[in-house]
């Protein structure tokens, strides 16, 4: 059992929209990702998804509104809800979600990463 | 769906060793707690438990070693592992764990809180 330092882990990768696994518990993964630009609209059929902003600002577009998530804030997107993460500048996020979660949900695009790395 | 600001949430309570629920997803709770002093040795039979230090320093005593967790770091204590959180000064932590988790695990003491509040 070792601790995980987020700043250290974020130095280990530069690719965006490609979540890395940094922890596993109770059938869930803790992931880190660097995001910039606009992702794809998608939803997850059976998984709620938590986005916690570690550095920067993330905009979560939703069907009826958008939520701007600042450093030290999180949002939980419930299963079934369409969403599209957008970041004008690079944002560092921690994700918490079931191991089964595909990051582009029901949508398969060129941004889809099939296999996530542990770092 | 609303975002959660950790700093704001931490201003809403002062009691220590009494986790507050700030989110729910996939059968898990996100909780915040203020800790100072020494807790009780305990384990959780069926739940892995994540401790993420938001501010301060947390020492996790384990049977074979202790881990000092600083701001921006987390540790996952696997199910079944005896542990005792200790904090010389107040530490603010975020917890991820199944809804079923009792914070003193298999031990029942005067520190045990039976019902957790949502804040």
Describe this structure as you would to a colleague:
The structure is a homodimer of 119-residue chains. Chain A is mainly β. Chain A has one helix and eight strands, in the order βαβββββββ. Chain A has one helix at residues 6-10, and strands spanning 4-5, 20-25, 28-38, 49-55, 57-61, 66-70, 73-77, 84-98. In chain A, strands 2, 3, 4, 5, 6, 7 and 8 form a seven-stranded antiparallel sheet that branches. Chain A starts with a strand and ends in a 21-residue tail after the last strand. The interface between A and B is medium-sized, with 33 and 33 residues.
Topology, element by element:
Two copies of one chain form a homodimer.
Chain A lengths: L3 E2 H5 L9 E6 L2 E11 L10 E7 L1 E5 L4 E5 L2 E5 L6 E15 L21
Antiparallel strand pairs in A: 2-3, 3-8, 4-7, 4-8, 5-6, 5-8
Brief overview:
The structure is a homodimer of 119-residue chains. Chain A has 119 residues and is mainly beta. Chain A contains 1 helix and 8 strands.
Descriptive key words:
mainly beta; seven-stranded antiparallel β-sheet; globular
Topology of chain A as a string of helices (H) and strands (E) = EHEEEEEEE
Mean pLDDT of chain A: 94
Largest sheet of chain A: 7 strands, antiparallel
What's the Cα radius of gyration of chain A?
Answer: 13 Å
The most extensive contact between chains is: A-B, 33 and 33 residues
Helix vs. strand class of chain A: mainly beta
Low-confidence stretches of chain A: none
- The oligomeric state of the chains shown is homodimer
Distance between the termini of chain A: 15 Å
Determine the fraction of residues in helical runs of chain A and give it as a percent range.
Answer: under 10%
Instruction: Using the alpha-carbon principal axes, give the shape of chain A.
Output: globular
Number of E-state strands of chain A: 8
